[in-house]
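[Q] Does anyone have a clean structure-token version of this?
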Amino acid sequence: TDSGLLDRVHRLRASYRDAASALPWLDAARWDADTPLLSAATDPGLPAAPRVPLEPGLRAADHPRSLIVYDPDRAGPIDALHDLLDELAAAALPLVVLHTDLDCEAVGALARRHPRLQIVVESGPVKILYFIDPLRQLLLNHPNVWLCTWNLCNWLGIETLCAAGLGDRLLFGTHAPRFSAQVSMGPIVMGHLPWRDRCAIAGDNLRRLLGLPEVAPSVEVAFEPGPPLVIDAHGHSGPPGRFPTPDENFAPADWLRFMDACAIDQLYLCPIEAIYDPALAPRDLAAGLLAAAPGRFRYFELFCPGAGPDVLARIERSLRDPACAGIKIHPTFHAVAADDDSYAPVFEIAERTGAAILTHTWEAAPTNPDHHLSLPERFERHLREHPTVRLVLGHAGGRPSTHESVVDLCARYPGASVDIAGDYFDSGLVETLCERIGAGRVLFASDVNWIDPRPNLAAVLAANISDEDALRILRTNAEALYASASR
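[A] Here you go.
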């Protein structure tokens, strides 16, 4: 019943808040100069370590128990700073470097030259998840290298590093106030880790690094997910190839164990292999999961521009399958602009059958210029020409630069909605979307297996919204939008 689901959502949110508030947080990556871009941003004001820019003439003695941050634009080449780095090491002041300023090889060389210098690697603007293997090897090779968890959103990334014996060199970080602290807290609060390890990562590792006393509470407050109720409406299965993912070695029972621990009831996914090769049938690729846990997994059919009659016929057959949630398109990956005429067949199928379409959307990022093919405004022609089609703008546009386009499309076209999959981690995203387009058009999603579901789940659980709106986002919107009965 609605009242029963509301009660479960209320208890799930309360459990997350209670478990989060019990941990001894100390932020290693607060960036006060990077101010929020969304109107509903919030800042929990967690305790944070002082951060001091590294520059010639810095007096180490003036900054006890601080993190010294290297910026090449301010400090110049690292090779010209070795004397100053020796002073930092003597004063027990850790050096923070962004992985986009010094790559893993350069950090390794620095760690060998200055074995007493403690070096903290932190995410730069390029996704750190692509570098999880080199970073793991870097930490294994150099005991004076630490890793900040800000933007470490690899699925089970923290657990993987802890299993390699590296948990004592992980440092909680948020990049607040621009980004949500919850997305960094979620994987720790809901981590599959002993209580003391969660306390260590949340703050006591950093306290130890800075010479401060540890404050781990002796009494554990555990996150209790309760019976699974969440629908993750945008995921994947299969190895993506660019970095390792847990499901390369997962059986269906491993998927279910993780989902249960996060209160995830159902996962709607498109196998990665189908995106790489649209001739492959997503149902066949997901067959093991569908057979092992009927009702827990559903799949998206995949449409690629230029698909022949055999693929179109397969899509229509799949849409009669209750396990099929809808249709997925990916203009960036398939290198065909979203407003191209070649998408007409899939929108015609969706209009005729009542199926929903999930699409990738993103900003035109300098690091991946092909994303301009998926700009939200490119989908307007389809919404205008097919007014009954339900189109989900996956990733909600991907970044704040697309936010106004997303809001405008949702305001003018009733069939448009969004999901929050991916690493769009700006503070206030959930609240701003609810305020501007309505909670009834926002879906929880993660982009697993690329991204850990827990960052985005924590953002919803802790959002400044009602339990009713949280329930819509976490479950009932996806149930209605992707209902097979409508077809």
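[Q] Thanks! Anything notable?
[A] The CA atoms of residues 129 and 328 lie 24 Å apart.
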